Amino acid sequence: MVKGSRPNTYNRIIDASLKLFNEEGERNISTNHIASYLGISPGNLYYHFRNKDEIIMQLFKRYSEELLRYLQRATPPDSTEAIKNYMFGVYDVMWQYRFLFSDLNAMLSRSAELLGEHNNFTRVQVSPMLLNMLQQLTDIGLILTDEIARKDLAVNIWLITKYWCDYDSALCEPKLTETSKYRGTYQTLSLLRPYVCPAYREEFNQMMIELKNQA
Q1: Cα separation of 113 and 98, whole Å?
Q2: Which pLDDT does position 5 carry in this prediction?
Q3: Residue 74: which of 100, 92, 62 has the closest Cα?
Q4: Which of 6, 53, 80, 212 is the most exposed place for a label (fewest CB within 10 A)?
Q5: CA 100 to CA 206: how far, in whole Å?
Q6: pLDDT per residue over 119-152, tens digit each?
Q7: For the segment 95-118, what is each residue's pLDDT rounded down to a tens digit?
Q8: pLDDT tens-digit profile of 5-21?
Q9: Would you state the pLDDT for residue 103?
Q10: 113 — phi, psi (to 5°)?
Q11: Has residue 3 got a pLDDT over 60?
Q12: What pLDDT, on the 0 to 100 scale, is given for residue 173?
């Protein structure tokens, strides 16, 4: 590999940590494990990160930036198929950082910085985008909601997506697989079912059956 194209140690640590956390679980991986995996000394790792929580913080920033890019670029859904694809895209991003959602509360309790970043991301970035999506679906007549319903739905959608990996991993043996994304998408979209307008119900129900079969 050409010297100039080699990733620097800082980014190699973050990339390796993501791989190990996803595969083995964050609680099972120490900074020594990461250093050993990369073939560097613990001192070299500590030069870049004082502890594991600093690595997690950077991975959360990567995740939040990637999810925001997806939400900002995605076309607002205007059909039942588009709703499915839109939500599946969210789960696709979350799957890449799934360790963050397998023991989230424990990580948040350890780091005030991560807790603040997480809460700000949820309140300032994610919530308005979810509300906009629900408003869009209401405006085109796909769902029938008022302002209170949209606010409740936005909270419930975020709760399911945020804790889905933790919930699903407890039911999956021996290991969580990518089919979890389909199950999560199905469960999230089931929240919309009571609000779907009559003209779209048959189409929506068929889409949900197909999604469930994929899971």
Answers
A1: 20
A2: 42
A3: 92
A4: 6
A5: 32
A6: 888 888 888 989 999 999 999 999 999 999 999 9
A7: 999 999 887 888 889 989 999 999
A8: 456 999 999 999 999 99
A9: 79
A10: -65, -45
A11: no
A12: 63
Structural tokens at position 17: 């940590």
The DSSP string of 5-54 is: GSPPHHHHHHHHHHHHHHHH-GGG--HHHHHHHHT--HHHHHHH-SSHHH
Say how many CA atoms lie within 13 Å of 130 toward its Cβ.
26
CA-based nearest residue to 164, from 203, 190, 140? 190
Alpha carbon distance 71, 130 (integer Å) = 9
CB 189 within 8 A of CB 214: no
Place of tokens 């129900």: 205
- Domains of the chain by residue range: 1-50, 59-214
Residue 58, H or E segment: helix 52-73
H/E stretch holding 201: helix 198-214
Reduced DSSP (H G I as helix, E B as strand, rest coil) percent helix, strand, coil of the chain, to 5: 80, 0, 20
The dotted CATH code for 59-214 is 1.10.357.10
| CATH assignment, 1-50 | 1.10.10.60
Average pLDDT score over the chain: 91
Q: Can you tell me the distance from the alpha carbon of 96 to that of 48, in angstroms, rounded to the nearest whole number?
A: 23
CA 181 to chain centre: 10
Instruction: Please say whether the beta carbons of 122 and 46 come within 8 A.
Output: no
Q: Which long-range contacts (CB under 8 A, 24 or more apart) does 86-90 make?
A: 86/133, 87/185, 87/188, 87/189, 88/181, 88/182, 88/185, 90/161
